[in-house]
Amino acid sequence: MGTTALTAQAYGRDTRTQAVNGIFSVLKNALWLAFPLALLITVIAQFMIPWLLPLFGDAQQSYNSPLQTHAQQYIEIRLLSVPAVLLQYTLVGWFIGLGKTRIPLLMLTSANVVNALLDYFFVYHLNMTSDGVAWGSVIGDYSASIIGAICVWHYYQNSNKNNSLSLSSPVFWLKRPHWRVIAPFIHINHQLFIRTLCLLSVFAFFTAQGARQGEEILAVNAVFITLLLLISNALDGFAHATESLVGQALGRARADLVKRILWLSGTNMMTMAALLSIGFFSFGPTLLTALTNNPDLVPRLEAYQDFLFLLPLVGVASYWLDGIFIGAAQTALMRNAMLAAALLVFLPLWWLLLPLSNYGLWLAFYGFLAARALFMLHGFLTLWRHPKKFM
Q: Among residues 153, 222, 150, 198, which one has the least CA distance to residue 375?
């Protein structure tokens, strides 16, 4: 996401020749952060697995319970994806910043298709379990990264016809960027890291609390979280476009264009969210029964299906504002809003609603989504009224 902001603003600010140098320098700087982080994440995760696994499952289960054994197996295999995932994120953010959104579409679609096909083959034909699902994800991640790297080279060939940049030279990629050049990445990405870590912690806490209520509740919540990811992907298409367009408009110092983008992106995202809610309301029961072959799970899913119907409308504002502030490189505001929503709304609501068990957990999660948008509202109004402050 930090790569998107810096790429979009560099592309909007510079002339054509300078843009070629600027945007590839952004990519290089991002990679110089991504690969050391991949090594660091992998090492830290290996030490944290024994500490994290007891949080997922019934409190009376032992460390070697089947649930935790499968979880450990899955995590250990998935960690092999860390370099590919960070490379994939870097390339997706870079292409979104350029407005070349078809390439991220190709990358992510390829990753998910490969993942889904391999999951089916490994689990249903090779009788693998969580290890098969994990290997499918690993191979899908590396497939997307390879496709993205090929697209970078193709874009370079088309945009560098005057030979203003020697991308093929190892010197360009291996020469360490100066601190002044990489400092904006550190500034933006450490705030995004805290923001995203907080978001993932909320999801992890949500999953852990569901697991403590039994395997059926864990399965119900897993199905709805999967559908939430589907919702977020549908809305993120507009959010990613907002990131790119807002960043480029601010780079060009076009206040009028910023306001037009905010209006159009907001109305489009709200329309999509309404259509998703109508679709879930109309076809949700059929969809839920299609997602499981466990007859005991279907009544549980139906009991919580109202939460699914409203998810797009509750979450759309936070997704939209995320896109706006990523494009504006206002990551500190995003970080503060996420922390406030998690600490001041989600956790207190969860504690107060403990007597409602899983219903209370979902109401707390709804409050978290709404609070994220509420805490970013002041920044949005400032951008709407005074776009030049962000240029």
A: 198
